[in-house]
Every structure is written in structure tokens, then in C-alpha cells.
User: Fold this.
Amino acid sequence: MPRPKGSKRAPKSLKQRRNITEAIAAKWADPEYRDRVCSGLAKYHGIPSGAKRKRKRKPTSKMQSKQILSKRKASDTNYSPANETISPIEQVRIRRRNKPLYKDPMISSKLEMLKNIRAQRAPEETKKTKLLKKQDF
Assistant:
């Protein structure tokens, strides 16, 4: 006999769902509860207490993303890591972030091949442009 689709739980009525939503909203409205949860999450993720975090936004266009990057670079120059102590968990994360996932052992030979191909194509491109200019005259 095939298994029925969906969860095994009984469906909740609209009133039950509304009560649950109100209870959760009331919990989060309590500043003491919010602080406990946020500090617990920060401790779990290795974020120093009281650290300000920037919200990640999806850029709407390429121009805006370039502006955001330039702002980040400007703000990074003002930042001095000597003022802040980094937790060991955060240090491991930074190391993982900076390390490439895969290092190609053939990268130097591939780079040479690309340079050779570009060098071969350059004279052909100049010939094409000269021919096009001659046709225009």
C-alpha cells in the first residue's frame, strides 16, 4: 500500500494558527526574550556581543553594486583590526573564506596557451579592421 503524501500531523484550524501566531508575536515583543535569543545566536555563531552587522541587500542594477563595493572599500580603510579581538571560530571562518576551493595544477600551462592564442588572433583582427576600412573608402 503506497504511503499517503503530506505530513502525518493533523491540520490546525484557523483559530489555532491565529493563537500560535499571537503567542509568537507576544514572545518576540518582550525585549528580555529578544535579547536572550539574539545573544544566544551571536554566541553560537561566534559574533562578539554588541557588534553591528550590515544587512545584505540584493543590488537592483550593476551600477548600484559598484557603488556599494566602493563604499565598502572606503569603510574598510577606516577599520583597524587591532581594536577588536576576533574569536577563534571567526578566525577559522575567515581562513576558509579566503582559501580557494580548488587550485588547478595546470593553471600555468593554460595561461600560456591563452596568451599564445591571443597573440595569434591579434594580427588577424588588425587585418580584418584594415580590410573593413578599405571597403568603406
Observations:
- The radius of gyration is 29 Å.
